[in-house]
Design goal:
Blueprint (H helix, E strand, L loop, with lengths): L10 E7 L2 H6 L3 E6 L5 H11 L3 H8 L1 E4 L2 E2 L12 E5 L6
Parallel strand pairs: 1-5
Antiparallel strand pairs: 1-2, 3-4, 3-5
InterPro entries: Beta-grasp_dom_sf, MOCS2A, Mopterin_synth/thiamin_S_b, ThiS/MoaD-like
Pfam families: ThiS
Keywords: Nucleotide-binding
Amino acid sequence: MTSPSLSPSPVTVVVRYFASARAAAGTEEEKVELAAGATVADAVQALRELHPGQLSRVLDAASFLVNEVAVRDRGRALGDGSHLDVLPPFAGG
């Protein structure tokens, strides 16, 4: 007898938008469900699909934090309940 194959559970990521990213997304925060094993790059692609238009331009220039740690590698996997912060470039001094 074989056991049924279980597919990995999707992960839910809390996305927080700052400054122009917030304006482009039209929200401060949202939950996004992604496939198990999803990466930061996968999340960014999902955000482009959820918010076509202005947000795409912001995402091109944005930097990201995962659980408040800067991400240099967009291939980094996201765990269930992770926080992904979208930080557009800031000007000032």
